[in-house]
Every structure is written in C-alpha cells, then in structure tokens.
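wait is this the right file?? whatever heres the structure
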C-alpha cells in the first residue's frame, strides 16, 4: 500500500499546478549562488558566504534564511523565504538544519505552476525503499504528508469504506 498521485494532489490541495508540466530537475540549472541572489535580493558576496557543503550536498543553513525571514525589508520576499525554508526543512529534509540546492530549484519551479506532486511521491517511494533495503534508517521525505495519508487511508478502511 502506497500513496497515489491523486491522493497526494488531494492532500496537498494542489490548485495552481499545470498537470501537463511535470517537475524535472534541469540538466544545467542556474548556479546555486545565482538562485540565492535572485530569491533573496542579496549580493553575490552574501550568497557565497552562506553556501556550505554537508554530506556531499551543497546547501544553506536554516539560520541564514531565518535571519532574512525576520529582517528582510520586502514582505513578499519574507513570505517566500519562509515557504522555501518549510520546503527544505519539512518536505525534503536531506541535510538536517539546512536547505539544499535541489530544494531551491524545486521551490522556484513550483511557484511557476509546475506539478510537483509526482516528485514528492517519488521521493517518498525512494526513501521508503531505501529504509526497507537497509533494514533501518531515517525516512527522508515529507513524514507529515505520509502520516496524513496513512491516517486518511486507514480511517476510511476502518470505517468500512
């Protein structure tokens, strides 16, 4: 038993996604530094200083985004940066306490109406399969979303539906 795309669409309340445009990571995306500069309206030097490498993953610490969320002069940027942090820390928490480059790309494309549900579902399958193969491990994906799906599924089954 695993979630389906339709179930995740319903649970995520996806309304603005263009379902014929599925999220795919671009083969030659813009550099992480350029994406950070564009997202934050900060200068290159600031972005370069924030970028770290953790477990072979390029990322930015949550604390750097937190400071911008609290102090950025543009309220829309604050909201966008907070949303990015949620994507990075909750939906795809690969490096704890950090937001990785892949999440920034995913977040930007989601704002453009690209359908991100298959990607979230694939990440769920990948992580669950990895835990099963190893026989242990930490689920890397949106545990909260998977929990809501499990509860909604078993609630229906328990009610005889």
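ok assuming it is, sequence goes like this
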């Amino acid at each position: 038993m695993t979630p389906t795309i339709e179930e995740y669409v319903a649970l995520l309340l996806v309304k603005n996604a263009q379902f014929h445009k599925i999220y795919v990571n671009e083969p030659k995306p813009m550099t992480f530094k350029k994406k950070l500069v564009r997202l934050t309206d900060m200068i290159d030097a600031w972005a370069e200083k924030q970028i770290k490498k953790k477990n072979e993953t390029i990322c930015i610490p949550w604390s750097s985004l937190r400071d911008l969320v609290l102090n950025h002069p543009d309220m829309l940027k604050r909201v966008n940066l907070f949303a990015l942090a949620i994507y990075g820390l909750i939906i795809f928490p690969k490096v704890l306490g950090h937001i990785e480059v892949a999440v920034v790309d995913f977040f930007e494309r989601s704002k453009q109406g690209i359908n991100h549900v298959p990607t979230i579902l694939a990440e769920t399958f990948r992580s669950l399969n990895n835990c099963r193969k190893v026989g242990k491990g930490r689920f890397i994906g949106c545990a909260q979303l998977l929990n809501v799906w499990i509860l909604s599924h078993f609630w229906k089954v328990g009610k005889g539906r």
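Helices lie at 5-12, 32-40, 44-50, 62-71, 75-91, 101-111, 117-134, 143-158. so i think its the right one actually
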